[in-house]
Amino acid sequence: EQFGNLRSSLPFWDGLPALAEEATGAPLARALLALLVDVGPGTASLRASFYDAFTERMCTQYLGTLRAWAELHGIALSGHEVLGHVGSWNPGASFSSWDLRTNFGLDHFRVDGYRHITGVDAQDCVAQLSTKLGDSVARSHGRSGCIVEQYMLTEPGGESAFAGHWGLSLEELRAQAIRLHLLGARQFLFHGFYQTDGNGDDFTRLRNPRFDFAPGINFEPWWSYHRQFADESGRLSVFLDGAAPICEVALFYPLRTAWAEGAGHSWGQHLAFWAQYLAEHGFGYHLVDEAELQAAEIVDGQLVLGDRRYRSLVLPSVTTLRDEQHARVLATFAAAGGHLVATGDIPRALQTGSASALAGVWEAVSGSERYRHLSRAPTADDACDLLAGIRRTHPHIELVAVGDQRAGGAPEGDGEPNAGTEPDAAAGPIWQWIGQDEDAWRVVLFNDSRRTRTAWLVLPFEHGVAERWLPEDGDRLPWARLGGQGRRAPVKLRPMELCCFRVRPVRGSEELAPAGAEESPSVESVTVLEHGWTLELPDAAPTPVAVDRGWEQQGFSRFSGVGRYRTTVELERPFGATLVLPAVHCAAEVRWNGTSLGRRGWSPYEFTVPESVLVEGDNEVEVSVASSAANRYFGGTPFDPGPVPSGLAAPPVLHLRRPS
Length: 660
Hints:
By secondary structure, the chain is of the alpha+beta class.
């Protein structure tokens, strides 16, 4: 009846009593009672011992059977278990009414040992733990990366779970894919590709495909733009795969603490904090379990796992370890100069062994010069202080306040200050990923915002050069010198820009293009194209509309599809121009005098207008906008969030250039 520490019923089989007694060394009644309530000093040991044996039996009987069948038939086994952290950084935030110790015991590392390819879920368009943990468990078994299946639970702000997010834009989907790639996803799959868009008269969630983890992206009006996103995603994955990621911090996965304490303990909140903080601040990290710690070498104060070397190990409110030998690994690491950080609780129990033996080992740990402990939940400032000993011996970016002389000043940019070395919360983080290939560092930056951002690229060497890779089309730019001050090079990222490049020191006397500031075309005039627009929808005559708000506010609240805006622009001396669409919902193609200027599915919606298509006098401008499907499929249903913005929501702006 969900009483006590165990909140879900245990699967039962005839051999469970014998397994419980053999694993715990206690009578069945005491072993089972310990799962529900505190039975004294041995409670943690009894629980950990039981769940260890229970999880092993579940994995061998179920996953072992699947693996054997797959190998017999020559196919690879993938898939994922129930992920209590899907959509979150906290391993216990999702499926909170279930106790996942009864479902493969939260032992993601053990589960992955049965798979040939790691698979995870991701929920909604937010950064989360799933791909980072997926990549981590894959690396523990000699692989790397994972397949991620992305799904949507509900419209942002919606209250009806499973009704989905038909208002999904391609910009949202692309941003999510990039986040997850940088967190460990090798391949991005979308959950909803529908054979049918369902029945409009049936509002039953999960029965009608319209309200079953929607959208079916092939029924989105912007679907024809999807290929651009898919190609970019593939190129990014290849770029990441060509280098080994940096390894600075090992984040301990406290499995036995989860077994002993249950979902209500603080280990989940501490692990969530560290996983998110390290990701958003650009630290290279992986989650590791006790088996990896036991197998690791400790060299020069670093935890060495194959080709991974970690300078720091973080324990997120860990109370229970496997045995004294595993505790001594932590003591050895700290004594060798390793940077050991503990927040929240500290180890006080062993699955096998006495608490007094652990106390003796931990006394040695706490006396180490490099050991740091914070008894409460950390803040970002705390984390910055606790990791102060980690040396950045690789390229990385720093956001610094404009004019902050303590940090050496900031790059010239848009004049908008950034909050010290912290990501600008209002704008969203600049995600960064750093890896190393045979002869250069690989750097990926993603500006997860709709505003221009500036930062420093901090290098571990003087006189750097960079080779830019263009994920939008696969081209590479020649190696060129980096500008800046000393080991700092300025980086300016446009809205939603994904930037991939390789950096290395200058080699001898090699001749390269000199560093130069990014040149902006000389602008003669800026014209806001606010008036004279018509909107043509399928099977309807052109209608005069305003372009400072979407068509959903102008009599077309239920229309989802492609609308064509048209106007005429009179020019006197055309020498080339740029057309900027400040607000688009969701994807746009621009034609100028009948010639396509390109298609964009995400910010910035900027289109170069070559001199060859401009004429003196009247120029015909057409902007075709593909909306989301929200107003069609949610309108008039119990899940209707109100009209979702569609079409142009701000007047286009024309930047005319002077002759060169």
